[in-house]
Design goal:
- Two copies of one chain form a homodimer.
- By secondary structure, chain A is of the alpha+beta class.
- Chain A contains five helices and twelve strands.
- In chain A, the strands form three sheets. In chain A, strands 1, 2, 3, 4, 5, 6, 9 and 10 form an eight-stranded antiparallel β-sheet that branches. The first copy, chain A, has a two-stranded antiparallel ribbon with strand order 7-8.
- In chain A, a hairpin with a 2-residue loop joins strand 2 and strand 3.
- The longest helix of chain A has 9 residues.
- The interface between A and B is large, with 57 and 57 residues.
């Protein structure tokens, strides 16, 4: 899988459909990964992403301390890794090793990219005003990577209690919107 | 289509997959509807939803003045209405009439439900701290309605520039998460 740098102006099209993400952090020499569905675009360019990371998640401390992370977008082939990451804690498990995920150095942050994900977004935390009340972080995407061979990614979309919708066909409509 | 009240504790499962929404408002006797993809869950119960409504949208003034709206979830059958709403402004068009959408009175807010949408979430604005900087609103869902016959809704998921992913199959995985 040869990934290429992807224009920041097009990042919104990767996240707007609402896929489950794998969020990676690195803190004190320890990399971790968690599954996350609570995210939204907040600005086109530079791309801003709002997301909720629970204070109960091991990643919360790493994210607040380092203010860096990577948002990795998995496809259906990684379904067991996604669920495994959600079912376990980085306090006790090296999730990369356990679930066969390959960490790759990022270019602008210390958190690793996940090689098996078709897209990776290197991010920094730029606003924490809603962190105390809602565990809500505003991230700015610094650098994006994409596997250009993956045109219609079969992303996972969480419906709750183990149910995931898998991305279906893409249709083209006469929209004038960005 | 007979809709039933839907438990607030299960609302997250409707929004987490990331569907395009139709947001309705009512202000000074004028109801309006806009298409929206920038939203995220922020709390399970009571359900909190964060969303971005641009200051350029006609709905922005109604939302800030009334602090009320309804989030309606359309399926693929409403694709032309969704795109039509996105391509036009409530300043000039009665979008309900133009796109064949039926407004139905809500129970807790003045904004109308859209009859043709399989789910409707009546909301109030509860936090505007990020409104000035990002046009970001935190909504609390007051009342939810669902068409119980729609088990696997073929929702629309915006990929940008007229491309929409249509929800595919749902798979069941051994997740312990909510």
């Amino acid at each position: 899988m040869a990934k290429r740098a992807y224009p920041l102006s097009k990042v919104y099209g990767l996240l707007e459909p609402g896929p489950v993400l794998l969020l990676t952090t690195a803190h004190r020499g320890h990399a971790n990964v968690m599954a996350m569905s609570w995210h939204t675009m907040m600005e086109f360019e530079p791309p801003l992403v709002g997301c909720v990371v629970s204070g109960r998640d091991f990643s919360f401390a790493a994210l607040t301390a380092t203010r860096q992370c990577v948002l990795n977008i998995p496809t259906v082939e990684l379904q067991l890794a996604v669920v495994g990451c959600g079912n376990s804690s980085g306090r006790r498990v090296d999730k990369f090793e356990r679930f066969g995920l390959t960490p790759v150095p990022a270019s602008t942050v210390d958190a690793p990219l996940i090689a098996e994900c078709y897209a990776n977004l290197e991010c920094r935390v730029v606003d924490t005003r809603l962190m105390n009340r809602y565990n809500f972080f505003v991230l700015e995407v610094q650098q994006a990577w994409l596997d250009p061979s993956c045109k219609d990614p079969r992303t996972l979309h969480h419906r709750g209690r183990g149910a995931f919708m898998v991305a279906g066909e893409t249709i083209k409509l006469p929209s004038k919107a960005k």
